[in-house]
Amino acid sequence: MKILVLSPFGKTEPFGRENLEKVARADTDFDFECLEAVFPLNYNTYIYNTLKCINGAVERVIKAEKQGYDAVVLSCMLDPGLLESRSIVDIPVTATFESAAHIACMMGKRFSVVSTDPMTVGGIDMRLVDLYGLRPKVASLRWIGITACDLYPEITPPEEIANRVVEVSKRCVEEDQAEVIIPGCTIIGSIFTNFFKKDPVEVIGVPVIDPMIVAFKQAEMMVDLCKLAGYPAVSRAGLWKKPPADETKQLRKFMKDNLSPEQYYY
User: Domain range for residue 177?
Assistant: First the structure.
């Protein structure tokens, strides 16, 4: 099978490809891309920025289906473009927050998210928790105090990030009774997976699951369910009902023919 792993911002996560190569099935090929052609920032965090990434991500997913990819993984804990992509393509589309949160619910009674900063935790993360109906399963949402744009190794040493994840995760376990820890940013998750060589259960007391890895493996499983069991990627009965094909064609042609970047933004 062939999977596109898309970081829906202007840079891919450090060590992300290396981490996925270790867990990918022998028959799985994947490409690892970002949105640098249409979004220049190395993170998205803010709501306006996320809006711009959503559009770019959905357009790339549509193209991926035409290119013959079997599935797409959206690698960002804001899950930008997940709902919109599922409404317009027929291949499986997974995203990191949704995938990690549901797996965490299978692994333990309650989980904690260790994210970047208070704004992300208090606003965006909790909004996704409610969207996915998981509030009763959340032990806590905490942060390490490093904004996403500063998580890259050339700015902050991986050891510092790993140490902060361990410190905050221990508080989640001891004070909030968390049974599973989810890194609240795919950059945090990919760095922690690559750098931290000890067993998190022995150090923290509970598992730490990498959202990118979980979403990737879920994408592999969804492709199998589609091809082997005949299950569709989503139900078209309600939320992900497709818009009429002629209207979609009309809308996309209009946008291509009439909205130049200068006209649209200035």
Answer: 98-211
